[in-house]
Amino acid sequence: VQLQESGPGLVKPSQTLSLTCTVSGAYITAGAYYWSWIRQSPGKGLEWLGAIGSSGTVYDSPSFKSRTSISRDTINDQITLQLSAVTPEDTGRYYCTRTRYLEFTTRGPDADWGQGTQVTVSS
Q1: Which one of 26, 62, 72, 114 has the fewest beta carbons within 10 angstroms of its own beta carbon?
Q2: Are 5 and 18 in contact (CB under 8 A)?
């Protein structure tokens, strides 16, 4: 499976960030997987933002629940993240992952990761 994140690169404060993860080599509805969004911000560790399961169930992170919306396009095998009311603290590299474990943020054989897309929040 391959995961490819895409997004605007630069977003202004208070705007809504929209990112897309395009999946190839697998169907996002197949198997018992969680398709997650994870980010790494300067000086911080990996943060789990939320996930959508192969069944379509959405799992929110308590830390981001009020600002995130995760959805999917099953025709094009894409996962979308929307993060509202962004601030400069939302600057970071955003990753899409596939794993069998919810809230899993470890790199290794138990997860597939995309290359990530860099997002900068600045006016």
Answers
A1: 62
A2: no
